[in-house]
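It is worth pausing here to work through a concrete case rather than discussing structure prediction in the abstract. The textbook approach is simple: state the sequence, then state the predicted structure, then interpret. We follow exactly that order.
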Amino acid sequence: MRIAFIDSGIGMLSTVAAVRAARPDADLVLSMDPDHMPWGSRAPEAIVGRVLDGARAALDAADAGREHAALDAIVVPCNTASVHGLASLRAAFEPRIPVVGTVPPIKPAAARGGPVAVWATVATSRSHYQQGLIEEFGQGVEIESVPCPGLAEAIESADPGAVEAAVDHAAGRTSPDAAAVVLGCTHYDLVQKAVSDALAGRAELYTAAEAVAAQTLRRLGSAPAPALAPTGTVTVLASGRPVALPEEALAYAPGQDLARALQG
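Step two, the predicted structure:
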C-alpha cells in the first residue's frame, strides 16, 4: 500500500501520523512544496497547478517501472488545497487512483451542540466555502469564525514564541462559552496542547486527521491494522526533489515519529 500526501508544508504531519498509526505497513510519500509556499495567498488556479504538480512528483517518485499505478491513493491534508484542487486532482487521477480531501470537522462539532468556534486562517475564515459549511451543518447551533492571523506560518517555521502569541490572540477572540473548537487548518493540529492550554481546557478540540485517515482506508478497501510491524517506508519531496524531513517538522511529535521511520 503506497499513499501520497500533497501539501505545501508540514501541515500534513497530523494526517500522515494518523494514517501511519492505522497502517504502519503502508509506504508514504510526503510531497511538500517549500519553493511556492504558502499556497493560501495564491490565486485558485495557481493552487490547482501546485497541487497537480505535487501529485505528479509523488507519482514519479513512487514509480519503479511498474505496469500499474505506483500510488494506491492520493491524500490532500490541507483545507485550502482541497477546496481549490480536489476536483482537478480527481479528474486527472480517478478512478485509477482514489483522491481523498480534507474538510474542517464542523459537522461533528455542531452535532454535539454549541456554541462552536472555528479557528482558521484569515482567508479561510472569510471564504464562502467555510460559511457554506457553517450554514449547512450549524442549523440551530451558534457557530463563530475565529481568524488566526500568523498561526499557520508560526507553526510552519516552528517558532514557539510566535505560536504562543498567535494562539493567545485567537483564544482571546474565542467566546468563553465555546464548548467546542474546530481546528480548521491542519497546521493547528500540531499545537493542540497549546490551544487547549490557552483555552484553559474549557473546549473540546475537533480535528480532521483521523477522519481523513479512515476515509483513505475505506477508499482503498482496507481495514485499520495498527498492530502490524512498522515496515512502511517514508519518502519526502521538496517541490519534487527527494530530501530529508524538514528540520521544522522535528519540533512536533508526528515529525519525530516520522524521523525515526526514516532512520529505520
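Step three, interpretation. Residues 103 and 218 are 16 Å apart (CA to CA). The chain is about 45% helix and 15% strand.
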